[in-house]
Each structure stands twice: as structure tokens, then as C-alpha cells.
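Hey L., structure's done. Input below.
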Amino acid sequence: MTQQDLGLNLSTRRTRKVVFLDEMNLVVPWTEQLSLIAPHAPRAKTGCPPFELVTMLRIHFLQQWFGLSDLAMEEALFETALYREFAGLSSVERIPDRVSILRFRHLLEEHQLAPQILAVVNATLADKGLMLKQGTVVDATLIAAPSSTKNQGGERDPEMHQAKKGNQWHFGMKAHIGVDADSGLVHTVIGTAANVNDVTQASALVHGEETDVFADAGYQGVAKRQEVQGIEANWHVAMRPG
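Output:
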């Protein structure tokens, strides 16, 4: 059966993914972010010329938005025309492989560019009145890492640790996140090992301009900690169950 037999017009159908990428294409401050990365970009002396920075940055964002590994991102670029179009690869013969994608991420990590990119995004949101900064919600989430020792070193990643949540043990790291209470937009992210207590990172998750901070029961006693004494905000912490 053809599309016409089914009564479908796929050429004009706008899926949620299409709408989302169109919106991101408009709101992400690409020029400002590229200016941060350009001074650190390597220059190829021989072989194939490197891919455009804007292409690699857009691919990196696709990875984060859709939770794709380097291999999955490489395959998605081959399989999905929408991703190629967003990355500016619609009319090229060469597509970045997993190694190129990995190297770009390592470039961002080596020069600590991810926090700077987040700062540029937040400044743009604040200028447009989308981030009000009157209140902050703080929380943490566990991110799993492979616990296997079947690797070249024969050991686990030394930066990852074990932590217990409820009755279950987790191995990996923890993302501590500060969110604008009015808009729900993230303004601060800190990564630690999984066994780091949530409350120890609370002071680093506020920007200092809020009047109220909201947290779950894992942050009990935060107002008494020495590192938050200079923060002039009201702490609203949930009670523990029972």
C-alpha cells in the first residue's frame, strides 16, 4: 500500500522531534558558543580537513538531547535525514564517525567549555526574561557507570563510587542540579562521585540572587552548614518521611 492509499501525507507531517529541533535551531545562541570553542579547535595539517565546528557542536547537542552514545550518534546520522539536516550534513559526502564525535567531546572537557556554554545559554535566557532568578530548586540524580573490571586496566573507573539509595546500590556518579523555580530552566550543574552527600553541594547550586531555595529531605540541616551562611535566602526543605 502506498502513502496515498493510507491517506497519509508524510511530506508535511511535523512530528514533535521536528518541532523541537526547529525551536532549538532558533533559540540556541550558536554564534556565541562557537566563539568560545574556536580558539581551542585543532588545525589539521595533513589528511582530511576537520568538520566545521558548528556541525560538531550541533551533533554534540543532538547526543545530549536524545541520549545517544558516540556509536549510536554515528549510526543515527547515517539513518536519520532529520539529524543530518540539523547538523548541516544534508549535501555532504562525509559524515563524522564515532572517533570524531568523541574527540570533540574531549575537546570540550579538556578546556572546561561545557560550563561556559551553559553560562552563555543562561545569560541569553536571562536577557529575554525567561529566567527570573527569584527562586532555585536543588536536587541530585544518580548516573550509572559500568562496574565491570573487564578492561585494559582491570579495574573500575577510580572517579566512580558506590552509593545506596533506598534498598538498592548504585555505581557511578551524581549530578547535582540547580533549577530556576519559576521557569524550570537549569542554571547550575556539578558532577561528583555517587557517594557524595547531596547537602554538601547545596551552596554551589545557588547563584546568590534568589530569595528562596527549595529542596527535598536529602538536604535536611542545610541552613546550619557553614558554607551556606553567606547566602541570604530562605531554605525550604521537605521533612523526612514519618
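The longest strand covers residues 168-180. Residues 113-127 form the longest helix (15 residues).

-- N.
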